[in-house]
Model the fold of this input.
Amino acid sequence: DAGVIQSPRHEVTEMGQEVTLRCKPISGHDYLFWYRQTMMRGLELLIYFNNNVPIDDSGMPEDRFSAKMPNASFSTLKIQPSEPRDSAVYFCASSAGSSGIGYFDEQYFGPGTRLTVT
Amino acid sequence: GENVEQHPSTLSVQEGDSAVIKCTYSDSASNYFPWYKQELGKRPQLIIDIRSNVGEKKDQRIAVTLNKTAKHFSLHITETQPEDSAVYFCAASISYSSASKIIFGSGTRLSIRP
Done:
């Protein structure tokens, strides 16, 4: 397997534009996570899916952010409209599941999308 | 909610010496504690993890200890090598009735001096 695939790797856009980040998880993984990484706030979990269903989106910063997972092999994170403070590296990760209630198995991160909003 | 504090934020050790990174968590219901390593410009990768029913786990030069009473866990790297230079993140995972959460520490930048 090629691992978690994210696109684009780099995105530069102007404030107010819509941005769509894409992720293909590892085949067979039931969990998909979206993270945001900045120097100021570190690594933050935005939302995660289990079997394509959003389970916890409490980390999504505001209504400008939305995430979907239409099938087991694809997910998107959309920001509309984008703002300069959204500039960050966005990681997608997938996991095979959980070994028990509350136990996440190892998460495999994608290479990330570096987003710059000017 | 859960809060994870990680110390120190930066750490510089002589090659061959040991490095210790410490994390504390707030919610005693947390039950899974992974450690991730992130090299410059790369993605985080799991290096070791520990469940709440275990006090210590070791994998070659890396070990993690967990003190549930004190609510802290530590990463120990022995015989450090240049390739250990990276940012290390601890995390704590907690389960609720309908979902689980994972909270990451703020990271420790480890530098190995030759």
